[in-house]
Amino acid sequence: GMGDVALKCANxxxxxxxxxxxxxxxxxxxxxxISSIIKKGILSTKDLPGNYFYYWKNLxxxxxxxxxxxxxxIFTSNAQPDMSRAEDYVENILEIARLYKVKSxxxxxxMPAPIDHTQVPDVWYAATNKELLKxxxxxxxxxxxxxxxxxxxxxxxxxxxxxxxxxxxxxxEIPIYTIQIENPRAVSSIxxxxxxxxxxxxxxxxxxxxxxxxxxxxxxLVEYLKEGIALPVDSGPISEAEIEKxxxxxxxxxxxxxxxxxxxxxxxxxxKKDIGKANELKQELDNWSVYKEYEDRFLDLFKxxxxxxx
Length: 310
Fold this sequence. Notes:
Blueprint: H1 5-17, E1 20-24, E2 36-39, E3 42-45, E4 51-56, E5 72-77, H2 86-99, E6 105-113, E7 123-127, H3 130-136, E8 142-143, H4 151-162, E9 167-175, H5 184-198, H6 205-228, H7 240-252, H8 258-273, H9 278-287, H10 291-309
Parallel strand pairs: 6-9, 7-8
Antiparallel strand pairs: 1-4, 2-3, 4-5, 7-9
Helix pairs in contact: 1-5, 2-4, 5-6, 6-7, 8-9, 9-10
């Protein structure tokens, strides 16, 4: 997903806790090749994504005062399956959860936000029941009151709830203009919260180095863009207007996530039936700085609405 946040959260847990693999899923049941790779001019198909289950035994759980301290099963996959097969995919994951008497499930996700890449991102949360919401309220998280969590990160929790598993999603903020750049800062924010919630013995030295490196690389790109779009270069801080220009320029270098494209199309469909939804659509287009790309379609909504009125 966006910023590789969910994948890197899971992978960092595996590496830092030294979790051990104990099961896998057959990729051919859920994935199929969609492109070829080229090395030294030679084409070949990509390997299918790996889908692995790891376990970590919390040997110090009994000593910890945190009532949430627990053992972990961590599931990772470096891609999402075709969504037509997503329910079966999730069901196989939940079958492992039943087999090992998992008490609750957690997923990770990214939340695009109008923040700067040097800011410490907030972590938002949503849960499957009110009791969990109340418990999580003690950890400095921000409640996601409304909205949706696109892709398997959100669908997994919804289907888990239907199967009787309580759970929650932790969403780390990422700058809107860096959605296609890995974001270890968001990963760090999420895992610091998870450490508190579950009493995990995590350390973040490796992650802190990644944060410094990526932040420096993005800053170089910002400086390059400042020159490229003729912003004044001086020793003082750049203005909010200049930051907005940089964000828009950076967005142009990235691709709109498929989940956001789908959300925009859904809002267009809703606005065709109810023009009152146009405000929500316009806000979404502005959030992603893509209004110009959709302007003709957006204005057509009002023409059609006027024709209906006549």
